Amino acid sequence: MNAPLSPQTAPAATGYNFAYLDEQTKRMIRRALLKAVAIPGHQVPFAARDMPMPYGWGTGGIQVTAAILGSGDVLKVIDQGADDTTNAVSIRAFFQKTANVAVTTRTAEATVIQTRHRIPEKPLKAGQTLVFQVPIPEPLRFLEPRETETRVMHALADYGLMHVKLYEDIAKHGHIAKTYAYPVEVEGRYVMDPSPIPKFDNPKLSMSPALQLFGAGREKRIYALPPFTRVKSLDFEDHPFEPTRFEAPCALCGATDSYLDEVVTDDRGTRMFVCSDTDHCEERRADGHRGLLAGDDLVDTITREADVERDDGAPIVPLP
Amino acid sequence: MNAHSPTLAAGFVDPVHEAQTCFRAVLDALAEPGTARAVAGITEPPAPLSAVAASVIATLADFETTIWRDAALATPAVDAWIAFHTGARLVEDPREATFALIADAANAPAWDAFALGTDLDPSTSTTVILQVDGFDAGARYHLAGPGIETTRDVAVAGAPADLAARGRANRDLFPRGVDLVLAGPTAIVGLPRTTRLEEIG
Q1: What is the side-by-side order of every strand in the sheet holding A190-192?
Q2: Does domain B15-199 have CATH number 1.25.40.20?
Q3: Which chain A positions have a beta carbon within 8 Å of B31's beta carbon?
Q4: Nearest-CA distance B148 → chain A (Å)
């Protein structure tokens, strides 16, 4: 996967405007984006269109990406950190087909990164734009279901209910029992849902050199964090915010500073923990980092045994 | 066609890609206040509408938006150009404007004459496109706020003399307030409502 992707897997589609959306729709989204950047953390309503995929598959993120994308951009798409899962592959193919843009899996090479529920491990740079797919933009939704009320609460900066919720977590569980979509306060004003990224990623939101845009298609909301915006994960003085930590390093690349996915490897409860960011993991392995289950010794053994046992002169091909 | 009708100046040659490039310049300008972002595209709009301001308005305005223009820009040629290339409705009341175009910066109305948005929806405020002389000379300002790592200095020639005071008054309204796009001869500088402005001479 870490090889450069072929520039074009399918011929660019004809009959569509560049990047699928019509210019009228792009202007509407662009106006919403400019106001979102001017009011960091505030949810700006926009007239989300039907996209050629169901809600829940990233229609908000796709519309934001389509509105900002230019022919010179290099696009990376990740789904839970991985470049090679269905959602990421489909969205990447969609923009290859409708915008004919260059694509990559390498974080450092991308100018626009559309993401579902992760922020890449490699620190982002100035000039990069991160587009989040957001299912539920309203952080107060499960505390107050009425949109009319939550909008007033945001207008008044009345976030007492959110603090009560976090306090009740501490009273019941001894800690704030929220591991993803952990609410943040932006520049001391708006409380914002950072989309369902693990709270491990929350510190990366703050003072990032990259521009961060959030699109919720079904909910028809756009919000943004300009570069170098102060973003604070909500907490209490005696119960400070703590990002998730892992006890073991990545089983493939040995990284101790990345977010890990649990992978069940058989039906007897054996499991391994590997980097959720596939590009990060592959780059580390390419640099020679090895985890406990990287499998090199296995490949060597099989190759060596095959070498000894084969006598038909056929070339030896190590397992991938 | 009426032989006396003036020739309408051209808009974007390649509307899709030129508008995208111009939009990214505006997005980056507002995301990183005080940085000058080059804008090209429309070359010869009717005076006194500047090429840069024309590109920005052609990128962002359409029939869903309204435009207020100051007295200097209220000429038949500019009105016809805006109507043809954007389809936006011209309004005389600045409080109804999605966008404001100002060529005569010295006599710009106070920012609170424009739509400021509401506490419920501060995004309904006016975006003011203010034509200035450039960013190489003129009054210097010290900027801070979101989009700026520590502080950033910017020079603006031809801005209203009380730009810093206007910015403070606008900042006090937060989250309401107007957002400013300063249109120079070849580039724009964004001053969103979050930016704190201090004049340093």
Answers
A1: A190-192, A184-186, A231-233
A2: no
A3: 37, 211, 224, 226-227
A4: 6
